[in-house]
Design a protein that fits this description.
6 domains, two-stranded antiparallel ribbon
Length: 865
């Protein structure tokens, strides 16, 4: 074992075993985590020293920058030359980086060890690359070691996107624990310090211990900052000044930057001798990041600004300086001139790499001072800012930014740019539920651009106009316009516009009764992927998911979600992720997996961030599910969904929310409680010729009115799943629902058969689903049919589970009993933390206990039965 590395034999052995396995063709991912100062870096260095004879080693570090470096740690790991370094030059294309990284870690000669340290600060582009790698682990000959501070990974941390996907024998988790009291005692034998006091103050954190021991003549400090500053206070003034300068540079300082800032390495020689900083492959760094932060935080603000200004000047002297790094130090230096000069380019670089949060962070720094720029520069930054706000699901803010951009471009007198600002204004307004504003903006954009004679600019606006027509029930007009613009886009060499035209044309075709529109949608996704247009590809996945759900083609929907959801997460497009997750909840609801559906939908309905227009995909299905379960919370959720649908005023929104309300009213025994919804939907679905959206809405509407005992008539174009029921052919109707894969609807058709045997089958299905509201109605029907001994159904509890917990709640309770936090349970079960929060709250309610400890004691009792 490396000298000075205490109580890490098992962890080091586990790391070295992964290299042997990789040499035999079994690649793996190692997650090495623990609190700050726990010794991750020391263990990694010891591991790399031991592994270099048998493996190639690549090492990168994530930096704690204000806005993160795009592919920063991969640039470090790649070093000079090679395919990966080449792929990372300039403005890297993500897919090219992914392929180069895959090739780098697939070398046949000997295995490769890729270490990325401090991934709690990982940038989105690198995170996407790592997700790409781990999904292709079987193709590598590599060990991927990721170190992070688990105490800095909260429920919403972006790293959860990666951690939640890692499971199975190829993933090794190594949690570093604090040193034991005997280990601490062995470290301070010669110091003369009181071992017990030292252990109590440091709690065995190796960094805390070593920092205190490095200043043996000082009293044991109360904090690590005191320990670090006590050591630094012993240095010569030149060394202290040098450390202050280096402390404003996160993680490490390259040799050239040390020379530029300090004139050479002499000023830090004393600090290196005392172990405060250490030399690394390409420069030096504080021996521990906490020490750097301790120094930086003691600096007066004026001094911090001055030192960051020096870093900015040094970075600006190099042509290859990282833009994100320049922005970080410009922000810290209050250097508005540099921020305005380099910030927009940094944002564009991050956006091209699919790192939309980084792009938005850069832009927000710039926008704070944007009024110092000329009007045209302001307008350009604001329109780009509006698009990133759109990607971040902050649509109302996007509306404001786009409005200001349009005003500025109008003043400048540039109609082309004015048209683009109006397009993004229209898109943000639609997503924010402002349909009139969206329509006005896109019509104005089209009129402005038509006068310019620029065919490509006009095609851009017309594409978005066609999209808006398709989204607001003007399907025939949308189909005509989008077909024309698609042909023009092909002539102009604009595959991006072709993809978008195909997307919304496909939706219009389906809503007009042509199921072949799904072919257009799939072609849209393929084309957008081929040109790496992330947002259009994500939009294609979400719109394809919507029509597949409407057509009840659930196997295809499952495949779409399986491909689309990781893509939207990887490319940091939360609005599209929300949409696909909502459809995942709807799919589970349809298939009868109600616990999972409820957990997903409740998570999405949570108020922050406000989903705006997207709540139309979550409120109605969640309310419908709760209504089926007899949950009184359903009515308020359904009413919220109906009010939102009326503001949207589209058939799709009104049908989703209205039909859910009608089902609730029927289940409650008084369909007249949904008179408003019935009246609206009867009027809006009157034109059913050719099938499509109106026929689907009307079929379901009449189906529920029939169940409520009202007279109805079948109609041409009615979907098969409702047509048979409207003809009073319950056998065919039940068979159709069975083929589609919706057990709840099948049960309701069997229950309407008037036959005792079939009604009993329906009751069994409904009890199995937990459909208590419908089951109550079916029990009443069985009594009307003369059945004396009606099955009582599932009891609220069993001897094995006397509290009536669902299977998922039992799983969660078991993990609560082990002491895991909600975030840890979420990672273990591959759920969101908010979903686990909901389960834990429900468990405490059912167990009638106030705390997790009480719940854990009950869980132990259940296990002992």
């Amino acid at each position: 074992m490396r000298e000075g590395l205490l109580e890490r034999n098992a962890e080091l052995g586990a790391l070295l075993a992964t290299v042997e396995a990789a040499a035999a063709g079994r690649s793996s991912v190692v997650l090495l985590f623990g609190e700050a100062g726990i010794g991750k870096s020391s263990l990694v260095r010891s591991f790399l020293d031991s592994a270099r004879e048998s493996a190639r080693t690549l090492v990168g570090v994530c930096d704690d920058l204000v806005t993160l470096r795009t592919f920063g740690s991969l640039r470090d790991a790649a070093g000079p030359g090679g395919a990966l370094a080449t792929a990372l030059t300039g403005e890297p294309e993500p897919e090219r980086v992914y392929r180069a990284l895959l090739d780098e870690l697939s070398a046949p000669a000997r295995p490769t060890v890729l270490v990325i340290e401090d991934v709690q600060w990982v940038d989105d582009a690198t995170l996407d690359a790592l997700r790409y790698l781990v999904r292709r682990l079987e193709r590598l000959r590599a060990v991927i070691v990721l170190t992070y501070r688990d105490d800095e990974i909260d429920a919403d941390h972006q790293l959860r996107r990666l951690l939640g996907t890692l499971a199975g024998p190829s993933v090794r988790r190594i949690a570093l624990s604090r040193l034991s009291a005997p280990a601490v005692a062995s470290m301070c034998v010669a110091s003369g310090l009181d071992t017990r006091t030292l252990y109590e103050i440091t709690r065995g954190n190796p960094f805390f211990v070593s920092e205190v021991l490095a200043a043996p003549t000082e009293d044991v400090p109360a904090t690590v900052v005191d320990a670090v500053m006590a050591r630094i206070g012993q240095l010569a003034p030149q060394a202290r000044a040098a450390l202050q300068q280096l402390s404003v540079v996160p993680s490490g300082v390259e040799s050239w930057l040390v020379t530029s800032l300090l004139g050479g390495f002499d000023p830090v020689a004393e600090a290196e001798q005392r172990g405060i900083v250490e030399f690394r492959a390409d420069g030096l760094a504080f021996r521990h990041e906490l020490a750097r932060r301790a120094v930086e935080r003691t600096l007066p603000m004026a001094r911090r600004i001055e030192l960051n200004r020096a870093v900015v000047d040094a970075l600006l002297e190099r042509d290859d300086a990282d833009l994100a790094r320049i922005v970080h130090h410009a922000v810290a230096a209050r250097d508005v001139e540099t921020l305005l000069a380099r910030g927009p380019a940094a944002a564009r670089e991050a956006a091209r790499a699919g790192s939309h949060r980084q792009a938005l962070a850069h832009q927000e720094h710039v926008v704070a001072y944007v009024d110092r720029l000329p009007d045209d520069a302001q307008a350009q930054i604001l329109v780009e800012y509006a698009w990133q706000l759109y990607a971040a699901q902050r649509w109302l803010e996007g509306v404001k930014a786009a409005q200001r951009s349009a005003e500025l471009w109008e003043g400048v007198g540039d109609p082309i740019e004015l048209g683009e600002a109006l397009v993004v204004l229209s898109r943000c307004a639609y997503m924010a539920g402002l349909q009139d504003e969206a329509r006005t903006a896109i019509e104005r954009a089209e009129a402005v651009l038509a006068r310019t004679g620029r065919a490509d600019a006009l095609a851009y606006a017309q594409t978005y106009h066609g999209a808006l027509l398709a989204l607001t029930d003007q399907f025939e007009a949308a189909l005509e316009l989008l077909s024309t613009v698609r042909d023009r886009a092909a002539e102009l060499g604009r595959p991006d516009l072709e993809a978008l035209c195909l997307n919304y044309r496909g939706g219009a075709r389906v809503n007009l009764g042509d199921p072949g529109g799904t072919d257009d949608l799939r072609a849209s996704v393929r084309l957008a992927l081929s040109i790496s247009h992330h947002e259009y590809a994500a939009r294609g996945y979400t719109n394809l998911g919507e029509v597949l759900n409407a057509l009840r083609r659930y196997d295809e929907l499952e495949h779409c979600i399986g491909a689309g959801l990781p893509y939207t997460v990887d490319h940091d497009l939360p609005g599209h992720s929300y949409n696909l997750n909502a459809h995942r909840g709807m799919l589970l609801l349809a298939r009868g997996q109600w616990d999972e559906a409820e957990a997903i939908l409740r998570d999405l309905v949570a108020p922050e961030p406000d989903p705006g227009h997207l709540a139309l995909f979550t409120l109605p299905p969640l309310g419908r599910l709760l209504a089926r379960r007899g949950d009184p919370e359903a009515v308020e959720i359904l009413r919220r969904g109906w009010e939102l649908a009326k503001r949207a005023d589209t058939l799709g929104a009104l049908a989703s929310a209205g039909l859910a309300m009608i089902e609730w009213a029927w289940l409650s025994g008084d369909v007249d409680r949904a008179t408003e919804q019935i009246t609206v939907l009867l009027a809006r679905s009157a034109s059913t010729g050719g099938g499509g959206a109106a026929a689907r809405c009307r079929g379901q509407l009449l189906g529920y009115l029939r169940r409520a005992g009202r007279p109805v008539e079948p109609f041409d174009g009615c979907p098969d799943e409702w047509a048979a029921a409207l003809r009073d052919d319950w056998r065919v109707a039940a068979a159709v629902w069975e083929r589609i894969g919706e057990p709840y609807e099948r049960a309701l058709e069997l229950a309407g058969s008037g036959q005792v045997a079939e009604t009993l089958v329906a009751l069994e299905i409904l009890d199995g689903l937990g459909a208590t509201a419908a089951a109550r109605l079916v029990r009443q029907r069985l009594r009307e049919l003369g059945v004396v001994h009606v099955p009582r159904g599932p009891q609220p509890a069993t001897r094995a589970n006397p509290y009536g917990l669902t299977d998922r709640q039992v799983d969660v309770l078991g993990l609560v009993a082990t002491g895991l936090t909600n975030a840890e349970i979420a990672e273990r079960l591959v759920l969101s933390t908010r979903t686990v929060d909901h389960h834990v709250s429900a468990i405490l309610t059912k167990l009638d206990v106030p705390t997790r400890k009480d719940a854990a004691r009950i869980a132990t009792g259940l296990t002992d039965r």
